[in-house]
């Protein structure tokens, strides 16, 4: 059942009893780094020992790690490669675990009783971030605030804004600005599986990203961005050179997200206001734009309700999934090969978003399962107008120990449960390096429409 903010200490008892907390108090903030981790997770394990205590995570490379690039990246050594599952969930014992699984996982187990299973491994709390992330979050815990109906995030920089959240919107802002390096380059690929089990490579991309929000050398300003991306296709040949530019601001109440596209055959850059909400991404034919990374865009169409904290069986420490991109799609299967998946028991925040009266969207409801240690979405379920699971996304997160960061904003599988199609996004691309952090910031003007034409030359 839902753990109402965990009655470990009187603070959690107060919350579970419905105590009124209009803002984060000095008393509760003092728990950060003590009873709570610096980012607000419950430091202690659970009562039966199946969730261990957080002891700082994995903060440096494990023995045997030799990346292809000097700046880090793939291939990763799985620290838990020799472990065996604690137990396995199949259609035959599903009822025993139904309440601890995302709704989409339940659908897959019921729909594919002979081929799909969930192997549940020992839980490891591997999340570790740079020290400044912890220091800033604790020091500035009372500064961030939400502004407007969208809403925007004000007076927050280089920190998790709401480590002790009180609303669904606060949790989702923690998700949007969860820690990642200020500058990044990447190579990635995307697969599409059809209803017959045939899998095809949709595209391969080169990405350049910036997150000024996490640049500790900067100071807060209203025009600050938390995500800038230029992504250029390198395959297939028919699409090579096309690119997209996306820019998102923390003050979403003042500055709407921007999107541009460049198509070499047209030799021009155009704005792409359609890259939002329930517009279907043409690349996958499955993913909605507001489902990117689990959630993307503004919070103006849905009401976001915080349901509480809950112990759930979720994707975690999924090194095997990342290192076996093509092997995970066995011919004829209509789901990812369970041999490539790893599931663990973790505490998550559960947020439910319900479509506002008068708003239009393909989905009537969304549900997010957010890791308490990292503020990453681990599983997402979108429900159709009949309130049936429509889209389901397990996100295959793991600790990039050489950085260190918890990688959760790249690879995920998106199942269209209504049609049977599925897409897999963000796996390591042709170079095999995955996601790298440059030593120097990207040059000025990198994230401007004018730069897209140069990148798109074939």
Task: Please tell me about this protein's structure.
With 458 residues, the protein is α+β, with helices and mostly antiparallel strands. The chain has a single domain, classed as Lipoprotein localisation LolA/LolB/LppX (outer membrane lipoprotein receptor (LolB), chain A, Clam). Helices cover 12% and strands 28% of the residues. The chain contains eight helices and 20 strands. It has helices at residues 10-16, 26-29, 94-97, 103-111, 131-139, 168-176, 319-323, 449-455, and strands spanning 87-89, 118-120, 145-147, 152-154, 183-193, 199-210, 225-235, 243-249, 258-263, 268-271, 302-315, 343-355, 365-371, 377-383, 389-394, 398-400, 405-407, 412-416, 422-428, 435-436. The strands form four sheets. Strands 5, 6, 7, 8, 9, 10, 11, 12, 13, 14, 15, 18, 19 and 20 form a 14-stranded antiparallel sheet that branches. A hairpin with a 5-residue loop joins strand 5 and strand 6. The protein is globular and about 55 Å long. 46% of the residues are buried.
Structure, briefly:
This protein is α+β, with helices and mostly antiparallel strands and 458 residues long. The protein has helices at 10-16, 26-29, 94-97, 103-111, 131-139, 168-176, 319-323, 449-455; strands at 87-89, 118-120, 145-147, 152-154, 183-193, 199-210, 225-235, 243-249, 258-263, 268-271, 302-315, 343-355, 365-371, 377-383, 389-394, 398-400, 405-407, 412-416, 422-428, 435-436. The protein has one domain (10-455): Clam (outer membrane lipoprotein receptor (LolB), chain A), CATH 2.50.20.10.
